[in-house]
Amino acid sequence: MIGISSGYVKLSEFSEGDYAHKDYISSLIKAGAVPLILPIVPGPSVDAYAALCDGFVLSGGCDVNPQFFDQDPTPGCGVFDTERDRAEFQLLQQAMKLGKPVFGICRGLQVINVALGGTLIQDIADEIDHPIQHTQKVSRKEGSHRVRIAKDSRLYQVLGEHEAIVVNSLHHQSVARLGDGLRAAAFAADGVVEAVDITEKGLIGVQWHPESMTAGGSELMLHLFEYFVSLSKEMKQVNAEI
Ligand SMILES: [Mn+2]
């Protein structure tokens, strides 16, 4: 059972609530998991979700409040949701305490990085010289830019030992300084960090959206979810034996 963090969305006066994109659900089901969308409610319920699920996907969404990495918002910073930040920090902390894997996707990678003391580039176009396009204009199911994968990373093994792959890209922020214990596992051509891992603690994060590439039929990206689900099963077994 994999919990997916949600984001607040307001569609109309009559329809607002906690939302997770359908591609997270379909990718987890394809990988053999039971997905569960978790509401954003910091407090005791987050601890209960942490105990209930075997692993967690921190999903994409709005920016992280820069106060959490000791900065003020720059002109390029987008909308943030401080309550969601707090709920996800709490969920991550609990998951790590309980030895349960966490897969950070896009914003989720950034949440992991900030929670572990790292900082973010608040707007790539503002802060990086000669950036490539990270907010792609084609369908989210299609890849658009290349990433180079570090050969000594877990990601390299999981994705079948490709030194470079093409990924989709729907972000305008990225890792600046890495959080404690995190390693950069993939880079874009402009130097932007595109993936991180701490293998011994079951944390992985990617800056792209493998759930939408999986929904578009990518077998390669499905491997990421299969790896994460099997790791969650494995750690459930290990935790049961302790
Ligand atoms: Mn990118």
Automatic annotation (TrEMBL):
TM annotation in the entry: none
Entries under Gene3D superfamilies matching the protein: 3.40.50.880
Any Pfam family: Peptidase_C26
Keywords annotated in UniProt: Hydrolase
The keyword Hydrolase appears for this protein: yes
One term of GO molecular function: hydrolase activity
Hydrolase listed as a keyword: yes
Name by which UniProt lists this protein: Gamma-glutamyl-gamma-aminobutyrate hydrolase
Species whose genome carries this gene: Sporolactobacillus terrae
